[in-house]
């Protein structure tokens, strides 16, 4: 019997990553969504944690894009931990060989440099839920079922840039932004580049904990250079940024903190994928 062509099941079809995966995976993929999103070969379900084993028939890869980054601890436990575990257990029982789970750098808390040796120290309910899912999913791996926890930094949609877009809108409106005198080096990744990494993982699978980010980290100097507007930086001395970290740690973490992924551990670089960050910053409609 010939192998099925549609051997990849993407769960969380309404996510921006899934939208980017559709053209890359083509007829190899089916998509499971709670609300129809117009993707090809889409299956609408009421709940992600109640998929039948039959839905995994002939599936070699499951890609889990289900997750939330806001809400209370109970919601994050259900969506970020319980649902991925239910998916993985059902997939494994059905004979699926591999699952790729979208995880987060949030498992490392405020670590400035991230590589395979960085200790996990989540500081938020979101980070704790993602770490709990990673640990429990990886524990399911055996010689018949392989698990990849793909840990990613801030994910943005190229058309809006998300949180990054809000920062850049503020900057273009004010023209001047207070930034650390030493600048920052912060890992980010677009949904499109994430999809490219996942598509490559479906060809060149890497089990265990993996990492990906745009090959070029975000810096204020390069962001200003990418925009057509004239944007200025107001360099803040270290004492000022340290004061901001004490008074408004959440804001300071977004504006001033480093979060750099080691090139040696970056799958985007390993797969030879090109940077998209500054192209997306240059092309973003911020007005």
Extract low-pLDDT stretches: none
Helix share bin: 25-40%
* CATH class value of the largest domain: Alpha Beta
Strand order of the largest sheet: 3-2-1-4-5-7-11
**Overall average residue pLDDT:** 91
N-to-C order of helices and strands: EHEEEHEEHEEHEEHEHEHHEHH
CATH superfamily of the largest domain: NAD(P)-binding Rossmann-like Domain
Structural class comes to alpha/beta
Our count of domains comes out at: 2
Main sheet makeup: 7 strands, parallel
Helix tally equals 10
CATH topology name of the largest domain, in short, is Rossmann fold
Distance between the termini: 56 Å
Task: Using the 3D structure, state the CATH architecture of the largest domain.
Answer: 3-Layer(aba) Sandwich
What does this structure look like?
The relative contact order is 0.13. This protein folds into two domains: 8-155 and 188-211, 3-Layer(aba) Sandwich (Rossmann fold); 160-187 and 215-261 and 274-281, no CATH class. The strands form four sheets. The protein has a seven-stranded parallel sheet with strand order 3-2-1-4-5-7-11, sandwiched between helices. A two-stranded parallel ribbon has the order 6-13. It is globular and about 60 Å long. The mean pLDDT is 91. With 287 residues, the chain is α/β, with parallel strands linked by helices. The protein has ten helices and 13 strands. α2 (73-94) runs parallel beside α3 (125-138). α2 (73-94) links the parallel β4 and β5. Helices cover 37% and strands 19% of the residues.
